[in-house]
Amino acid sequence: MRLLLLTHAFNSLSQRLWVELSEANHTVSVEFDINDAVTREAVAAFQPDVIIAPFLKRAIPQDVWQNTRCLVIHPGIIGDRGPSALDWAILNNERRWGVTCLQANADMDAGEIWAWHEFAMRDTAKGSLYRHEVTEAAVVTVRQALERIATGSSRPRPLDYSDPEVRGRWRPFMKPDDRRIDWLMDTTGVTLRKIRSADGHPGVLDELFGEGVHLYDAWPEDCLSGSPGAIIARRHGALCRATVDGAVWIGQVKKKGPVGVRSLKLPATLALEDRITDLPEAPEEFAVDDHRETFREIVYREHNQVGYLEFRFYNGAMSVDQCERLLRAFEYALARPVRVIVLLGGADFWSNGMHLNVIEAAHSPADESWRNINAIDDIARAILTTEDRVTVAALRGNAGAGGVFLALAADQVIAREGVILNPHYRNMGNLYGSEYWTYLLPKRVGINRAEILTENRLPISARRAAQIGLIDRVVETDTISFISAVEALAEGIANSPGYEDIIREKHGQRKRDELEKPLAIYRAAELEQMKLNFYGFDPSYHVARYNFVFQVPHSRTPLHLAVHRRK
Ligand code: COA
Fold first, then answer.
1. For all residues of the chain together, what is the average pLDDT?
2. How many Å apart are CA 78 and CA 80, to the nearest integer?
3. Which pLDDT band holds residue 122 (cuts at 50, 70, 90)?
4. Ligand 1 within 6 A of 428 CB?
5. Phi-psi category of 236—alpha, beta or left, where left has phi over 0 and alpha has psi -120 to 50?
């Protein structure tokens, strides 16, 4: 079929659908929902059989849905309607939720239902639910709907609130007061739910140190406490605030700022550094097999001769400080009696490379970019030059740009089915990239394919990545069972009779590669190009970064996505 993805942005869900539908041999094109005229133009040019709307902020023009079948993905159970579906589901502590694929008509989310899929809710942020459960359910519903349309096997079902299966209902847009935190009343559980219902957007409106802020990235704390509402500690980027029955950590903050002035989502202590005085620093967060609940971006644990290093950096973004801490943690793992080190990244993202928001907030973004890329390169080098252990990168969540190449520094790269990789940098204002990608990528996929991947700037599924050798293996399972599969694999390597041979072979290969061309040469050449990106005449990287971090709306769909706009 000819399928047009009409979407506000090419976000994780749209990327996943693009990948799934393209791999299922549909002809897929993308148009950003910019205005009605642009949408009409795209439909006229592409002549799609079906328009799929995974992520829209506006209604589809009437003449478009009247003339072409439009499938809307709604992140709610059957009968649920309105623009804040997941927000209400989290705030109301729903235990089951779902995704509905419905046909667009004149009433928002009230069209005929082609397919729906339910899932068990997890206690997590809206963005995490969206990237996992909602995305998986959306893929199922779109596949079913398209099959039903193609075969004519069944008709869509009208929304009928007298049907006992229809549990949902209309819910309005969620306003700041609907989830405002009452620090003198709300328990830790309620506070977490309020913040999570608004994470990544729009954040919970609150006040910290007398400043209006939006809160994100909430973590429970099971040791520290204080008088309700008091800010009682800091650790790295986060602030700890007491509730009536404990405390929560707030990892990220965006200042409210005056109307019309753009503000950045940043680690809380950085966003408010001018206001914070005399706040005690809670001790270092990572320790072997410590199961306390607290804010801990880096966690290390060991089992059966395998060390597991988790780095749960918000949005997968890695600042200089986070890179330096991760490097110390990796060195710590190297000093432990383990035979395999598994790099687990975070549950939502393995890594998305340099921390573009922290860079944007820096006094000199060019200098900060330089420091940041060097800090990531240092981790990549430490992984690459680990000669006496096997390293495994295990991707539960997506990875983009430098994050993908950092993963390739490990001996083995495995990913959960459903993971999306963006192994390219160019979307960020023609950024050249480093992380030793000029060594790692051609080594895995050959020079030609390396060029295609980096020039095409398209997402790729874990399945396809394994087929072309970009990664080693895909595990077909959900996020929770993925960890068990990774443990079995890592323990298999650690206890394998061929372990010493693996180490010898790896050592020899690295030595041969180093003789042919030292890692330092790759790095120097990449950084030479990066210097031009950061300090050179062409400001594209700085402009693209600004647009990205402030989420400036798109003014057109790039041609690598809009097939119908290519000559
Ligand atoms: N630095 C800071 N924030 C980042 C980030 C980065 N490198 N990568 C992603 N994010 C943030 C986004 O701003 C967004 O923030 P929000 O929660 O405030 O909306 C969030 O992570 C999710 O990103 P989004 O773009 O919505 O996710 P996605 O799954 O749709 O797309 C990518 C993933 C990787 C394609 C896209 O995020 C991207 O291009 N990131 C930049 C990668 C990069 O150029 N890194 C620098 C070079 S190493």
1. 95
2. 6
3. very high
4. yes
5. left
Q: What confidence tier does 286 reach under pLDDT thresholds 50, 70, 90?
A: low
Point out the ligand 1 atom lying closest to the alpha carbon of residue 399: 34
Supply the pLDDT for residue 378.
Answer: 98
Q: Which of the four CATH numbers 3.90.226.10, 3.10.450.50, 3.40.309.10, 2.60.40.10 does domain 297-536 have?
A: 3.90.226.10
Give yes or no for residue 16 CB within 6 A of ligand 1: no
Best of 128, 129, 255, 315 to mutate for ligand 1, by most ligand atoms within 8 A of CB?
Answer: 315
Structure token pair of residue 47: 């002549």
Q: Does the C-beta of 401 come closer than 6 Å to ligand 1?
A: yes
Residue 298: C-alpha distances to residues 89, 95, 347, 556 (Å): 29, 29, 12, 39
**Two tokens at 147?**
């099959």
Asked if residue 213 lies in contact with residue 254, where contact means CB atoms within 8 angstroms, the answer is yes
Can you tell me the mean pLDDT for 173-179? 97
Q: Measured from the CB, is residue 458 less than 6 Å from ligand 1?
A: no
278 CA to centre of own chain: 34
Ligand 1 centre and the CA of 315: distance in Å?
7
Mean pLDDT of 536-558: 95
Closest CA to 398 of 142, 132, 125, 216: 132
As a whole number of Å, the end-to-end CA separation of the chain is 21
Provide the β-strand partners of residue 254.
214, 265
Nearest CA to ligand 1 atom 8: 352
What pLDDT does residue 260 have? 81
- Atom 25 in ligand 1: residue holding the nearest Cα: 11
Taking each helix axis from N to C end, the angle separating 365-384 and 320-334, rounded to the nearest 10 degrees, works out to 10
126 lines ligand 1 (CB under 6 A): no
- As given in the structure block, the two tokens for residue 500 are 């010493």
pLDDT on residue 277: 84
Is residue 462 very low, low, confident or very high in pLDDT (cuts 50, 70, 90)? very high
3-state helix, strand, coil in the chain (%, to 5): 40, 25, 40
Find the length of the chain.
Answer: 567
Nearest Cα residue to atom 29 of ligand 1:
12
Would you identify the CATH topology of the domain 2-172? Rossmann fold (3.40.50)
Q: Which of the residue ranges 261-265, 323-327, 537-541 would you say has the lowest mean pLDDT?
A: 261-265
For the chain, the structural domain boundaries read 2-172, 176-275, 297-536
CA of 124 to the centre of ligand 1 (A): 19
Atom of ligand 1 nearest to the CA of 428: 44
- CA 509–ligand 1 middle distance (angstroms): 34
* % residues pLDDT > 70 (the chain): 99
Work out which ligand 1 atom sits closest to the CA atom of 200.
17
pTM: 0.96
pLDDT score for 290: 67
3-state secondary structure of 567: coil
Any ligand 1 atom below 6 A from CB of 425? yes
* CATH numeric code, 176-275: 3.10.25.10
Closest-lying ligand 1 atom to the alpha carbon of residue 551: 13
Helices (DSSP H) in 51-125: which residue ranges? Answer: 62-67, 85-91
